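Kindly review this protein for my students:
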Amino acid sequence: MKNQRQIFIRLLIYSIITFAISLAAISILPVDLSLPDILLPCIIFPLIAALAFFIFLMGTRANADRQPLYTAGAVGLKFILTVIFAVLYFVVMKNTGTAYIILFFLLYLAFTIYLLLGIVKVLKIKSLKQDQA
């Protein structure tokens, strides 16, 4: 339980750091992005990652035969929600400038790597516990 709570706390800290870096980047670099432009992706991507972590962690409590299904479901749901967000972000909101595209894919990459590293860490810890038993 403690490890699961730590995952969400670290995700929150990671999100705050990512937002701070994004704010620093738009103030230093000559891009035409403002605070509202980076606020939406910096909120949506952590929510999608948190949902994926939640589904994955539900699978770690399930029996061993269903764990891969939960893991694949978590990663697949993250991908589908990101595609839906991309359509809304680029088509509906008409954020088609180069800066918007780079911001979107950098945040996508950052939170995807974070999610996958978190999943690998939990699976590694679980594997070590099973080996000791």
About this structure: The chain is about 85% helix and 0% strand. Residues 2-122 form one domain.
